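Example 3.2
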Amino acid sequence: MAVGDIHIPQMQAVKGLKIGSTQAYVRYPNRRDLVIFEFSEGTHVAGIFTQNAFCAAPVHVCKKHLNIENSRYLIINTGNANAGTGAEGMKNAYAMCEAVAKETGVKTEQVLPFSTGVIGEQLPIDRITQAVKPALDTLNQNAWLDAAHGIMTTDTIPKGASTQIELDGIIYNMTGISKGAGMIRPNMATMLSFVVTDIPISKTLVQQLLKESADQSFNRITVDGDTSTNDSCIFAATGQGGGQEIQTEQDPRYVLVKEKLFEIMKRLAHLIVRDGEGATKFITVDVKGGKTTQECCDVAYSIAHSPLVKTALFASDPNWGRILCAIGYANITELDVEKVQVWLDEVQICENGGRAHRYTEEEGVRVMSKPELTIHVDLGRGDAQDIVYTCDLSYDYVKINADYRS
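Structure, written as tokens:
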């Protein structure tokens, strides 16, 4: 079960966007598994993608199409990743785009394909292409929740976030969904995420806003340390809310938009961790006192990825030596361990590189038993800080992934 606050707010409709979905029977019976986004003409669409060398066929196609035309449609299937599928997989990714283009009259290059699910199996492409028209027939402005359900795989909850922002007297909407529960250690964004606003923003700034916001949200989470073959994150600005386009960072509206986008993406990223496969705890790893932000990030990820730390968290066992071990192998040059301090929430467990004088096992157990806690680390060597979010590693993680294809 997902951990803590997992509610979905009212998902605000975005002017210039319609969403449709249907059952294509890719893998799952009796559930939506094909989703289509339709953008109004003139929408600016940006994307960032996995850095996995075995990136999926749809990732290759998305990158290519984004550089050719302004995107009008997204087509997303779940149940099959279309990764590790060679030339046939590429052909099928293009076939998804062609099916949408044929039904809508746009160019094939104006369609972006996305897939998620099992790696190494060919798409049942005929089922997908036959489901395109039924999905298009359901297009409407208020289908965000259906779409959130339609992109799930091992997720136990749909993931969505929505907000409004007033700029120069105009109220705009910004809404997004994501999916992901396992194979989560993004090097760009997350498994899949789609955020859309009706604020008019230049194409260059749409890409910039996406990268900056993803770096501090989706690129700061981990469930199991595995970078997916299919990670994709899309941010689109339809511009249909009216008003003047934001064209430069100097525009006073830019900072406000950036804050709202980060708020949305951080929420979506946190929901992925809260729904981590088998997760029972939501963990914040807050590292300060580094010479650089990268140092702090490296230490935070070293702790967050450690199977020994994660299993100790699951067992509520304050085995703080595992945290010190993870800090020590984070490859921080000339780290003075005698300056390192570590806390579990407000309880200091490590002082100047050794057991804190006032620490007791009972206090450690009390904090570790909480469903949400923070591991604070002070490296004592600078002013930099960074934060990573993760979850524990439970028996259910093994069960879920051992049975994933059955």
